[in-house]
Design brief:
With 210 residues, the protein is an alpha/beta fold. The protein is 34% helix and 30% strand. It contains 7 helices and 9 strands; from the N terminus they run αααβαβαββαβββαββ. The chain has helices spanning 4-14, 16-23, 27-37, 55-61, 75-84, 119-132, 168-177; strands at 45-49, 67-72, 89-92, 105-111, 133-145, 150-152, 161-163, 180-191, 197-207. The strands form 2 sheets. It has a 7-stranded mixed β-sheet with strand order 3-2-1-4-5-9-8, with helices on both faces. Strands 6-7 form a two-stranded antiparallel ribbon. Helix 3 (27-37) crosses helix 4. The chain is globular, with a radius of gyration of 16 Å.
Amino acid sequence: MQDKTKLTIDAYNKNFAGYADKFMKYSPYAQHVIEFAGLLEDDFKVLDIGCGPGNVAKQLCAVRRLEITGIDLSSEMLEIAKVSVPDGIFQLQDFRKARFLSEYFDAVVLSFSIVHLDDDEVNEVLANAVKWLRSDGYLYVSFMEGKQAGFETTSFSLQPLYFNYFQEAKIEAFFKANGIDCFRSIRQDYLEPDGSNTTDVFLFGKKQQG
């Protein structure tokens, strides 16, 4: 079986410009990032997992003065991120294998990054995100709900990428079991190139003390 991650990253590296053109200022998503940014304070340390071209980091920094650390496996995406957020720290890193200090970050963001992972990988990555987040810190997670996992083409790439889909209730239950209070949930339709709709889910959480 071909490696899903390699194929997906290859597609992103070849189609980075199309992705950036669509999502750097994509208002249906940016509005939720901006709302989340309103919860943060200046000088917060923020980890952007699967940061892509820095679209979310840039939107966050338009609201607050933040210390951004972004990690991604697409070298081409990271080059855009470094230009988009010059003061950020962006690293070529597999976030399935990333290591950071426990409770180091004031906020952790996973904007449509878990969608390229299988179920076991997602549980491990989310558990690490919680571990790296300080008590009373904020968590932002977005993903798609509904379909069967597999390879798909997209509006920005004719090369297939691996996508996985999750149920909101299961993600919220995982967070609750790991000390995260999900206090905000947003659901909205995303129009696919074939005319069908996919449900996008956006969750805001806060890490409980103790």
